[in-house]
Inverse folding.
Protein backbone atom coordinates (compact mmCIF):
# COMPACT_ATOMS: atom_id res chain seq x y z
CA UNK A 1 0.00 0.00 0.00
CA UNK A 2 2.80 2.43 0.85
CA UNK A 3 5.43 2.44 -1.91
CA UNK A 4 9.01 2.90 -0.79
CA UNK A 5 8.10 3.11 2.89
CA UNK A 6 9.96 0.95 5.40
CA UNK A 7 7.94 -1.86 6.93
CA UNK A 8 8.72 -0.37 10.32
CA UNK A 9 10.50 2.61 11.79
CA UNK A 10 13.43 2.45 14.17
CA UNK A 11 13.60 5.25 16.70
CA UNK A 12 16.55 5.65 19.13
CA UNK A 13 15.31 4.54 22.52
CA UNK A 14 16.69 7.60 24.29
CA UNK A 15 14.59 9.85 22.03
CA UNK A 16 11.38 8.41 23.43
CA UNK A 17 12.43 8.50 27.07
CA UNK A 18 12.01 5.32 29.12
CA UNK A 19 9.04 3.78 27.41
CA UNK A 20 7.58 0.59 28.91
CA UNK A 21 8.08 -2.55 26.84
CA UNK A 22 4.32 -3.16 26.86
CA UNK A 23 1.35 -0.77 26.77
CA UNK A 24 0.17 0.16 30.28
CA UNK A 25 -3.11 -1.23 31.59
CA UNK A 26 -4.46 2.33 31.60
CA UNK A 27 -2.99 4.18 28.58
CA UNK A 28 -3.14 7.97 28.64
CA UNK A 29 -6.36 9.12 27.01
CA UNK A 30 -5.62 10.45 23.53
CA UNK A 31 -6.63 14.09 23.05
CA UNK A 32 -8.48 15.15 19.92
CA UNK A 33 -6.27 16.93 17.40
CA UNK A 34 -6.56 18.24 13.85
CA UNK A 35 -3.83 18.33 11.21
CA UNK A 36 -3.98 19.77 7.70
CA UNK A 37 -2.11 18.66 4.60
CA UNK A 38 -1.97 22.00 2.78
CA UNK A 39 -1.29 21.55 -0.95
CA UNK A 40 -0.43 23.59 -4.03
CA UNK A 41 0.26 22.58 -7.63
CA UNK A 42 3.88 22.26 -8.70
CA UNK A 43 3.95 21.52 -12.42
CA UNK A 44 4.31 17.75 -12.49
CA UNK A 45 2.73 17.05 -9.13
CA UNK A 46 1.91 18.73 -5.85
CA UNK A 47 3.82 20.40 -3.05
CA UNK A 48 2.85 20.18 0.61
CA UNK A 49 3.54 22.72 3.34
CA UNK A 50 5.77 21.31 6.10
CA UNK A 51 7.26 22.64 9.30
CA UNK A 52 10.18 21.45 11.43
CA UNK A 53 9.11 21.78 15.04
CA UNK A 54 11.50 23.35 17.52
CA UNK A 55 13.45 20.77 19.50
CA UNK A 56 12.12 22.07 22.82
CA UNK A 57 8.52 21.14 21.96
CA UNK A 58 7.11 18.58 24.39
CA UNK A 59 5.54 16.57 21.58
CA UNK A 60 7.32 15.74 18.30
CA UNK A 61 10.19 18.11 19.02
CA UNK A 62 12.53 18.38 16.03
CA UNK A 63 10.14 16.47 13.77
CA UNK A 64 8.99 17.63 10.35
CA UNK A 65 5.19 17.81 10.41
CA UNK A 66 2.08 19.25 8.79
CA UNK A 67 0.41 22.26 10.48
CA UNK A 68 -1.94 21.22 13.26
CA UNK A 69 -2.53 20.85 16.96
CA UNK A 70 -4.87 19.95 19.76
CA UNK A 71 -8.53 20.88 19.88
CA UNK A 72 -9.43 23.85 22.07
CA UNK A 73 -12.70 23.44 23.99
CA UNK A 74 -13.89 26.68 22.35
CA UNK A 75 -13.54 25.06 18.92
CA UNK A 76 -16.88 23.34 19.59
CA UNK A 77 -18.72 26.70 19.66
CA UNK A 78 -21.87 26.13 17.61
CA UNK A 79 -22.23 29.84 16.83
CA UNK A 80 -19.50 29.68 14.16
CA UNK A 81 -20.78 30.78 10.75
CA UNK A 82 -20.34 27.63 8.66
CA UNK A 83 -20.40 26.76 4.94
CA UNK A 84 -19.92 23.30 3.47
CA UNK A 85 -20.53 19.78 4.78
CA UNK A 86 -22.27 20.04 8.18
CA UNK A 87 -20.75 18.65 11.40
CA UNK A 88 -23.00 15.59 11.12
CA UNK A 89 -21.32 14.65 7.83
CA UNK A 90 -17.84 15.08 9.31
CA UNK A 91 -18.92 12.92 12.24
CA UNK A 92 -19.75 10.14 9.76
CA UNK A 93 -16.41 10.50 7.99
CA UNK A 94 -14.34 10.46 11.19
CA UNK A 95 -16.51 8.11 13.24
CA UNK A 96 -17.04 10.51 16.12
CA UNK A 97 -19.81 12.56 17.72
CA UNK A 98 -21.18 15.66 16.03
CA UNK A 99 -19.79 18.09 18.67
CA UNK A 100 -16.33 16.52 18.32
CA UNK A 101 -16.58 16.73 14.53
CA UNK A 102 -17.47 20.43 14.73
CA UNK A 103 -14.52 21.06 17.04
CA UNK A 104 -12.14 19.14 14.75
CA UNK A 105 -13.07 21.16 11.67
CA UNK A 106 -12.79 24.43 13.61
CA UNK A 107 -9.43 23.34 15.04
CA UNK A 108 -8.20 22.49 11.55
CA UNK A 109 -9.07 25.98 10.31
CA UNK A 110 -7.71 27.71 13.41
CA UNK A 111 -4.43 25.79 13.57
CA UNK A 112 -3.78 26.25 9.85
CA UNK A 113 -4.21 30.00 10.24
CA UNK A 114 -2.12 30.20 13.41
CA UNK A 115 0.79 28.14 12.09
CA UNK A 116 0.89 28.98 8.38
CA UNK A 117 -1.13 32.19 7.98
CA UNK A 118 -3.54 30.47 5.60
CA UNK A 119 -7.19 31.15 6.38
CA UNK A 120 -9.89 28.77 5.14
CA UNK A 121 -12.73 31.24 5.43
CA UNK A 122 -14.67 33.67 3.33
CA UNK A 123 -17.44 36.22 3.05
CA UNK A 124 -20.54 35.29 1.11
CA UNK A 125 -19.48 33.10 -1.80
CA UNK A 126 -15.92 34.44 -1.88
CA UNK A 127 -12.79 33.05 -0.22
CA UNK A 128 -10.29 35.24 1.63
CA UNK A 129 -7.39 36.13 -0.68
CA UNK A 130 -5.44 38.49 1.59
CA UNK A 131 -4.96 37.59 5.24
CA UNK A 132 -2.80 40.59 6.17
CA UNK A 133 -5.74 42.52 7.70
CA UNK A 134 -6.08 39.71 10.24
CA UNK A 135 -2.47 39.67 11.49
CA UNK A 136 -3.36 41.01 14.94
CA UNK A 137 -6.23 38.54 15.29
CA UNK A 138 -3.86 35.71 14.36
CA UNK A 139 -1.60 36.62 17.27
CA UNK A 140 -4.60 36.75 19.60
CA UNK A 141 -5.72 33.31 18.43
CA UNK A 142 -2.25 31.95 19.20
CA UNK A 143 -2.26 33.49 22.68
CA UNK A 144 -5.85 32.24 23.23
CA UNK A 145 -7.04 35.80 23.86
CA UNK A 146 -9.48 35.27 21.01
CA UNK A 147 -11.55 32.25 19.99
CA UNK A 148 -12.10 31.23 16.38
CA UNK A 149 -15.84 31.91 16.69
CA UNK A 150 -15.28 35.45 18.00
CA UNK A 151 -12.65 36.16 15.35
CA UNK A 152 -14.86 35.06 12.46
CA UNK A 153 -17.92 36.87 13.83
CA UNK A 154 -15.98 40.07 14.42
CA UNK A 155 -14.68 40.09 10.85
CA UNK A 156 -17.93 38.95 9.24
CA UNK A 157 -16.31 35.76 7.98
CA UNK A 158 -17.65 32.26 7.46
CA UNK A 159 -15.70 29.05 8.08
CA UNK A 160 -15.37 27.19 4.76
CA UNK A 161 -15.63 23.51 5.61
CA UNK A 162 -16.06 22.86 1.89
CA UNK A 163 -12.36 23.66 1.41
CA UNK A 164 -11.38 20.67 3.55
CA UNK A 165 -11.44 16.94 2.80
CA UNK A 166 -11.24 14.09 5.36
CA UNK A 167 -8.00 12.18 4.81
CA UNK A 168 -6.83 9.98 7.70
CA UNK A 169 -6.98 9.24 11.44
CA UNK A 170 -3.89 8.24 13.43
CA UNK A 171 -3.60 7.75 17.19
CA UNK A 172 -0.37 8.03 19.18
CA UNK A 173 0.91 4.62 20.41
CA UNK A 174 -0.38 3.55 23.82
CA UNK A 175 3.07 3.60 25.45
CA UNK A 176 3.55 7.32 24.84
CA UNK A 177 3.00 9.71 27.79
CA UNK A 178 1.41 12.28 25.43
CA UNK A 179 -1.20 10.89 23.07
CA UNK A 180 -3.34 12.42 20.34
CA UNK A 181 -6.25 11.14 18.29
CA UNK A 182 -5.29 13.12 15.20
CA UNK A 183 -7.64 13.57 12.28
CA UNK A 184 -5.93 14.61 9.08
CA UNK A 185 -7.55 16.94 6.55
CA UNK A 186 -6.58 17.87 3.00
CA UNK A 187 -6.88 21.45 1.71
CA UNK A 188 -5.66 23.48 -1.26
CA UNK A 189 -3.85 26.77 -0.76
CA UNK A 190 -6.52 29.40 -1.55
CA UNK A 191 -5.78 31.63 -4.52
CA UNK A 192 -3.97 34.81 -3.49
CA UNK A 193 -2.91 33.50 -0.08
CA UNK A 194 0.63 32.67 1.03
CA UNK A 195 1.84 30.25 3.68
CA UNK A 196 4.42 32.06 5.81
CA UNK A 197 5.05 29.62 8.64
CA UNK A 198 5.47 32.42 11.19
CA UNK A 199 5.01 30.40 14.37
CA UNK A 200 7.12 29.99 17.48
CA UNK A 201 6.48 26.24 17.33
CA UNK A 202 8.59 25.76 14.19
CA UNK A 203 12.24 26.54 13.49
CA UNK A 204 11.73 26.34 9.72
CA UNK A 205 8.95 25.77 7.23
CA UNK A 206 8.30 25.66 3.52
CA UNK A 207 6.88 23.84 0.52
CA UNK A 208 8.21 20.47 -0.54
CA UNK A 209 7.35 17.77 -3.02
CA UNK A 210 6.23 14.71 -1.03
CA UNK A 211 8.92 12.51 -2.62
CA UNK A 212 11.61 15.07 -1.73
CA UNK A 213 10.43 15.22 1.88
CA UNK A 214 10.64 11.43 2.10
CA UNK A 215 14.11 11.48 0.49
CA UNK A 216 15.27 13.99 3.13
CA UNK A 217 14.07 11.64 5.87
CA UNK A 218 15.75 8.62 4.26
CA UNK A 219 19.01 10.58 4.05
CA UNK A 220 18.79 11.63 7.70
CA UNK A 221 18.31 15.31 6.92
CA UNK A 222 14.93 15.33 8.68
CA UNK A 223 12.81 13.11 10.89
CA UNK A 224 9.24 12.09 10.10
CA UNK A 225 6.68 10.45 12.33
CA UNK A 226 4.98 7.37 10.80
CA UNK A 227 1.72 9.13 9.82
CA UNK A 228 3.62 11.99 8.19
CA UNK A 229 5.75 9.55 6.19
CA UNK A 230 2.80 7.44 5.08
CA UNK A 231 0.59 10.36 4.13
CA UNK A 232 3.42 11.97 2.18
CA UNK A 233 3.85 8.69 0.34
CA UNK A 234 0.16 8.69 -0.61
CA UNK A 235 0.52 12.16 -2.06
CA UNK A 236 3.37 11.13 -4.40
CA UNK A 237 0.81 9.57 -6.74
CA UNK A 238 -1.27 12.75 -7.07
CA UNK A 239 -0.66 14.60 -10.32
CA UNK A 240 -2.48 17.72 -9.14
CA UNK A 241 -4.25 19.27 -6.18
CA UNK A 242 -7.57 18.73 -7.94
CA UNK A 243 -6.83 15.02 -8.26
CA UNK A 244 -5.96 14.77 -4.57
CA UNK A 245 -9.13 16.60 -3.50
CA UNK A 246 -11.28 14.40 -5.72
CA UNK A 247 -10.10 11.13 -4.17
CA UNK A 248 -12.71 9.06 -2.37
CA UNK A 249 -11.44 8.32 1.12
CA UNK A 250 -12.51 5.77 3.70
CA UNK A 251 -10.99 6.93 6.98
CA UNK A 252 -9.99 4.26 9.49
CA UNK A 253 -8.38 4.75 12.87
CA UNK A 254 -4.73 3.61 12.90
CA UNK A 255 -2.88 3.08 16.19
CA UNK A 256 0.79 2.11 15.72
CA UNK A 257 2.49 -0.08 18.32
CA UNK A 258 5.91 0.60 19.83
CA UNK A 259 8.10 -2.47 20.26
CA UNK A 260 11.27 -2.09 22.33
CA UNK A 261 14.07 -3.97 20.56
CA UNK A 262 17.44 -3.54 22.23
CA UNK A 263 18.60 0.05 21.89
CA UNK A 264 15.89 1.05 19.48
CA UNK A 265 12.12 1.26 19.45
CA UNK A 266 10.40 -0.26 16.44
CA UNK A 267 7.11 1.22 15.27
CA UNK A 268 4.72 -1.41 13.94
CA UNK A 269 1.38 -0.87 12.21
CA UNK A 270 -1.73 -2.95 12.85
Amino acid sequence: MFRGVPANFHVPKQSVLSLPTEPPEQPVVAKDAATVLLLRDAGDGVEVFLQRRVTAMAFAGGMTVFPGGGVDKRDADASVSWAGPPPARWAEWFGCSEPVARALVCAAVRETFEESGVLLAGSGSSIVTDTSPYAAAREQLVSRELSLADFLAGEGLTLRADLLRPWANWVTPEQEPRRYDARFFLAALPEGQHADGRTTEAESSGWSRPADAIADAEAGRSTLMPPTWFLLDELTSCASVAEALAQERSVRKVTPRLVVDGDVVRVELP
